[in-house]
Amino acid sequence: MSKRRFHGLILPAFFLILGGPVLAQDDCTPIDFEPEADSTVIADMILPEQTLCYQLITEADQQVSLQVLEDDNISALLQDPMDPQKFPHVPSDQHAYQILVKQIKRTVTPQYFRVAISVEP
Q1: Which of 20, 34, 110, 120 has its CA 20 to 30 A from that of 14?
Q2: pLDDT (tens digit per residue) in 4-22
Q3: Lowest-confidence region among 34-43, 63-72, 86-95
Q4: Helix or strand holding residue 96 (H, E)
Q5: In sequence order, which ranges of the chain are alpha helices (DSSP H)?
Q6: What b/e string do you get for 43-61 counting C-beta neighbours within 10 Å, with b at 16 or more?
């Protein structure tokens, strides 16, 4: 009986170590800024147990900051996956980022959120 319990914990522990699902570039929604703008807001809805991915491409010398607006149950994580196999079409003078959004405490209903993104030279 204890073998079954141990075996049943291996897969969930494996996902905790990896930090969740790995999303391909095609699964990410591109983020575009208006001309001459240095910030934008993502307004969307997230389902329970869902991770949303957004892709942002900036100039190499720019810094990106995120701020979750109006909801303390949303996590927005900025990842810098500069692996050329994941982003083969990004020129070397640019950076490609993934922004992963998920609920901190899983709810049973969809949840609306807003995340502000700003880019500084």
Answers
A1: 110
A2: 443 443 333 333 333 444 4
A3: 86-95
A4: strand 94-103
A5: 2-18
A6: eeebeeeebbbbbbebeee
Place of tokens 């204890």: 2
Q: Which residues contact 40 (CB under 8 A, 6 or more apart)?
A: 31, 32, 33, 34, 116, 117
Residue located via tokens 């790995």:
22
Nearest-angstrom CA–CA distance, 7 and 4: 5
AA letter at 82: M
Segment 30-51 shows an average pLDDT of 92
Beta bridge mates, 117: 40, 66
CA 100 from centre of chain: 1
Return the amino acid letter for 60: A
CB neighbours (10 Å) of residue 98?
21
Task: Give the CA count within 13 Å in the CB-facing half-sphere of 99.
Answer: 23
